[in-house]
Amino acid sequence: MMIGTMNETMKSVGGSVELKRKLDNGALISSTEGERKAADMSAKMRQSAEEVKGQPFSVKLEWSRLRREQGNVIFKRGEWAEAMDVYMTCLVAISNEEGEVEESEREISLPVLLNLAQCALNMRAASKCIQFCDHAESLSTGIGKHSHKVLFRRGKAKIIRGDFKGGRKDFLQCREICGNPSMQGGETEMKEIERELKKLDVLVKKGKKDEGIRKKAMKRVMGGGEVRVYEGGDGRAAEGTNGHGTKKDGEKTSEYDSKKEEAKIEENVKQWLPLVVLVLAILMCLK
Known about the structure:
The protein is mainly alpha-helical and 287 residues long.
């Protein structure tokens, strides 16, 4: 973070910087981690906006491409939160000028939103991934509506959220697009889609089986018996867990069930999506 960098620089002189939040009564209190990250991101966005201020669109476009390549390097290291910061700064190059919107959305908005969605997906922040994909799908030129990547990533995120019906719908639409003979690399994408659909079928079947176990367990409870069962690897009920396919330590049996992980991440990433709107506000101030 920028504040952390400043504090490192000031160590030699014994100084430090701390971000404070001013209350309505004038009192100052220490900021939260989320507020510090939001302030740091806002500063980065403003700095990036200054770098491209007054430049022709062709220069902004090339600047955005270079920034995205930097983000890709960070992404490949598995530093997804840091990559998101870099991808976000690319958005300051967006143009709403007549004659530039189509290229702006094709070369900046859509690729960046897809990058952000993938980062969120990798971090198991499914709701954020869905929001990024929804923004991509709603781009004014309609380019996002025909992107198989938007549908595929959103489909995976919906499954993480437990929306199996919505996930299947996105996968089937994605398969339809990839099945078009004119699409390059469609066969590879089709194989990946089929793999995800098979995983989904397994999850749905397991969910139905777990529901049956749960109902049997409830009957035993109503009859006064104590229930401590779960679905074992051999398909039989085994002791040692509750009746919802959940181990004692709370770990879900489904590979897609990560609501607890997402809840932990939610606070850390909630400030990123609104910054898409902030970019436009910054650009308006700098004109």
